[in-house]
Design brief:
Blueprint (H helix, E strand, L loop, with lengths): L2 H32 L1 E6 L7 H16 L4 E6 L7 H10 L4 E5 L22 H8 L2 H14 L2 E15 L13 E4 L3 H9 L3 E4 L5 H6 L5 E5 H6 L8 E16 L9 H35 L3 E4 L3 H7 L12 H9 L1
Length: 333
Amino acid sequence: MNNKTIRSKVTFLKKTTLAAGAILISGVISSNIHAANLKWAHVYEVGTPYNEAILWAAEEIKKQTDGRVTINAYPSSSLGKEVELNEALDFGTVDIIYSAESLPAQSYPPLKISAFPFVIRDYDHWKSYRDSDLFKEIANGYSQTTGNEATTLTYYGVRHVTSNIPINSPKDMEELKIRVPNSPLYLMFPKAVKANPTPLAFAEVYLALQQGLVDAQENPLPTIKFKKFYEVQKYITLTGHMTNSLVTIISNYTKNKMSEEDYSKLVAITKQAAIKASDEINTSELNLIQWFKDEGVIVNTVDREPFQNALKPYLIPEKNGFTQEQLDRLKAL
């Protein structure tokens, strides 16, 4: 065998080896792209409809992707408080979160429009907004701004005040030290009724109420039950001053972990999960007034008009990050 033949064979072997290696590496990369183990984190308890919806979504995505994509739920602030979870999205250390509108709205203010006081009329109106072109436009604006994708809304409920004193009018709330989330949107109501708003992390509220560090708090009825606030508060006053949603947000990094087809399935499943949790929360909300009464809590129905009138000077869309046109479209749904 001459030198030319030997060199030819060596070259052929090198090319064959490189090609095989490239195919192997390509296969590994392809496998890594198409297989994803996702973290879905939030601050709510294990037994809530929010977490149950994640467990359903985990089964569904596993089934629809033949096991390529899996979801693990991280409830009860196990991966951080809500502010930290929003930050984690930007680093890709979590893949999906539930978040109150106010936090992602810091990046894109129109996202909080449905939480504007006394804007959402009822659950049907809220559903119309969730499914509307208006929400799609706002969600798209958020995604373009941050790179993360807001896929849908989950109904969180209508906010009411709990306290250890009776509240019949805005005057009864003057100087009342009331816990609210640390966001201008939530400060609006207590400031309007001349209460003393006290921002606290969600996980700290029960102990603060128990120890008298704050006198009151405000949340939807299902949350009051989930967090057991009724154990340390005597009254629930049905102010109904805000309707809240949780935004389901997928990290920008997550899209690169799976195929386009599997990602589309994930987005669709988050929307289905939101519908399931929302309907359950709404049903719970309707039934809880009697449940609280049976637990010995005094449930107080009030005339909401004086509370609405107190808020009127604050209800200026442009000062809250969205337009009058957007607000008019929401009201018209």
